[in-house]
Specification:
It is built from 11 helices and 17 strands. A 7-stranded mixed β-sheet has the order 6-5-4-3-2-1-7, covered by helices on one side. Strands 12, 13, 14, 15, 16 and 17 form a 6-stranded antiparallel β-sheet that branches. It has helices at about 15-30, 120-130, 135-145, 145-155, 180-190, 220-230, 270-275, 285-290, 305-320, 355-360, 365-375; strands at about 5-10, 35-45, 50, 75-80, 90, 100, 105-110, 165, 195-200, 210-215, 235-240, 245-255, 260, 265-270, 295, 325-330, 340-345. About 45% of the residues are buried. A hairpin with a 5-residue loop joins strand 5 (about 90) and strand 6. The two termini are about 15 Å apart. Pathway: Cell wall biogenesis; peptidoglycan biosynthesis. Its cofactor is Mg(2+); Mn(2+). Cell wall formation.
């Protein structure tokens, strides 16, 4: 059987660059070598596409520094000829000549955040007529921007957390937004938002730039949180903290037109919170501190509530025109209400990530999951 040649992309210009590298290490190690020939294509933080760099399979979260894609003596730039479609991937040799990377059957863009998960690279592959794993342009763009995710979900009748959206482009940089604090506070109070608040960039992932604001009426604290979020995006959400458990559900729809399937919902249990620490699921809890949290699938909820989460996750996936895969993050309140927090169209594939763990608990192994996703887009 001829192996299908799959470009696996990783790195990128987003803050989640290193997490993409770790995700790709997991994907490449789990890829079915009898069916697929991977062609790893890395993207540096400067946006250069390369082949032949450091092997991502050797990367993990155990080192002192997070991995990054770097040009090396043995790496070559990747050049695209859009008109050639699946035959339009080339590497530039040292003498300037171009060498074909061969016919590409599909691309698996294991990219997180802007320029990888936001519809931009999906649009490039659409123009090239190259099959790719994951959501299309609309869903990728809408779900990368939490503001518009909420707009689409609310229009579909799906509950979301109360909040406001700020445009920080006109805020006073010289005072680190302190001069805008009273106005921001007035908007929060006008919206009737209850504390604690969570301030977050609208278009960022992996909890970059997220701050918990606990002191009602403190304009300085609120302005400082908005300033922190503005390092990642000018569009900023200020959301009411929800007294709820954060339950995540993996959705799978590998072939266009099929009915999406939902995994057993899982929960990230914050272990230090049980010890009295005031903890939320930030970047360190997700990736850097293995003692900070653990995954439980299925979540410790009644079966009826687990099924309600699954149903709402599929509804949300359809509302944003999802395809391929997504992780739908929900809030489940003590009264049993379910609302969607956000939708990740290319969720983490690291060894400790919820998406593969949720499917494994539902009966789909890591390797079979990757195979299913790739085969769903092959022609």
């Amino acid at each position: 059987m001829t192996k299908k040649r799959i470009v696996v992309m990783y790195g990128g210009k987003a803050d989640e660059h290193s997490i993409s590298c770790i995700s790709t290490a997991g994907v490449l190690k789990a890829l079915d070598a009898d069916k697929f020939e991977p062609i790893p294509v890395g993207i540096t933080k400067a946006g250069q596409w390369i082949v032949g760099g450091e092997d991502p399979r050797g990367w993990d979260l155990n080192g002192s520094a997070l991995p990054t894609v770097e040009k090396t003596d043995g790496s070559r730039d990747v050049v695209l000829d859009v008109a050639l479609g699946q035959d339009g991937f080339f590497a530039r040799n040292a003498d300037g000549t171009l060498e074909s990377l061969g016919h590409i059957d599909a691309v698996f863009p294991v990219l997180h955040g802007p320029f990888g998960e936001d519809g931009t690279i999906q649009g490039l592959f659409e123009m090239m007529n190259v099959p790719y794993v994951g959501c299309g342009v609309l869903a990728s763009a809408a779900c990368m921007d939490k503001h518009y995710t909420k707009v689409l979900l609310a229009a579909a009748g799906i509950p979301v957390a109360p909040g406001i959206t700020l445009d920080a482009r006109g805020f006073d940089q010289a005072t680190r937004f302190a001069a805008n604090g009273d106005d921001i506070l007035a908007q929060v109070e006008a919206a009737g938002l209850q504390y604690p608040l969570f301030v977050k960039p609208s278009r960022a992932g992996s909890s970059f730039g997220v701050t918990k604001v606990e002191h009602a009426g403190d304009a300085a604290e609120l302005a400082a949180a908005v300033f922190e979020a503005s390092h990642h995006d000018w569009r900023i959400l200020v959301e009411q903290g929800i007294d709820a458990r954060e339950i995540e559900c993996a959705v799978l729809c590998p072939k266009a037109g099929e009915e999406p399937k939902a995994s057993w919902p899982g929960e990230i249990v914050l272990d230090k919170r049980a010890g009295g620490d005031d903890q939320f699921y930030d970047f360190d809890s997700k990736y850097m501190d293995s003692s900070a949290s653990h995954v439980e699938v299925p979540a410790n909820l009644p079966d009826e509530l687990l099924e309600r989460v699954r149903e709402i996750a599929v509804r949300g996936f359809k509302a944003v025109d999802g395809a391929g895969l997504s992780r739908v993050d929900t809030f489940v309140t003590p009264d049993g209400d379910v609302m969607i927090n956000e939708i990740n169209t290319m969720p983490g594939f690291t060894p400790i990530s919820m998406y593969p763990k949720a499917w494994e608990a539902t009966g789909v192994s890591y390797t079979d999951l990757i195979t299913t996703l790739i085969e769903g887009v092959l022609r």
